[in-house]
Design brief:
The complex is a heterodimer. Chain A is mainly β. Chain A is built from no helices and eleven strands. In chain A, strands 2, 4, 5, 6, 9, 10 and 11 form a seven-stranded mixed sheet that branches. Chain A is globular. Chain B is mostly beta strands. In chain B, strands 2, 5, 6, 10, 11 and 12 form a six-stranded mixed sheet that branches. Chain B starts with a strand and ends with a strand. The radius of gyration of chain B is 13 Å and the shape is globular. Classes of the chains: A mainly beta, B mainly beta. Chains A and B meet through strand 5, strand 9 and strand 10 of A and strand 5, strand 6 and strand 11 of B.
Amino acid sequence: ETGVTQTPRHLVMGMTNKKSLKCEQHLGHNAMYWYKQSAKKPLELMFVYNFKEQTENNSVPSRFSPECPNSSHLFLHLHTLQPEDSALYLCASSQLAGDTDTQYFGPGTRLTVL
Amino acid sequence: GNSVTQMEGPVTLSEEAFLTINCTYTATGYPSLFWYVQYPGEGLQLLLKATKADDKGSNKGFEATYRKETTSFHLEKGSVQVSDSAVYFCAVSSGSARQLTFGSGTQLTVLP
């Protein structure tokens, strides 16, 4: 399989649940990203990982916890979420070399918090 | 920090009409500029990019020229198709982290 894959594609969870989103890239990239896309708002960058190290946390609440065990995999662990956290969560990856700063996106996980 | 101002939508056109979606940016250094497209139910796909002033990015009949003097990167297509219906995002990348800053997106609907 090629590109950036995300699982699950859809997730419904209660506010007391714990769940995880998974992202995998098959492009040999060194950087991975989590974005949140809410209706009628610009994409919000949440986290950035370069070579498995977190380099950016854009004031994201602690109920979102990222994990990057290697350069190909990225997780977003969710616990005690709020209804306003319902959104499309997008994962992306990029090479970080030369001018190849193009980010490649997965299809997203549509999250609904009840 | 960087910012992107994008033409507000929604935009509705008839098939074969000319398309322009305006995008202006503010950024430090020497940014790269991008247009991404998001089809219904999918993630973002890179449509085209330009990495230096006066470069023209092009793909699938879409074009955009990096205008440093006007800090703009307007998207154009001479003849749109129904299959071009999607949300279009302008983005800028700069700095050592090469992080993308996106515009708010423009919904395009093309009617047959």
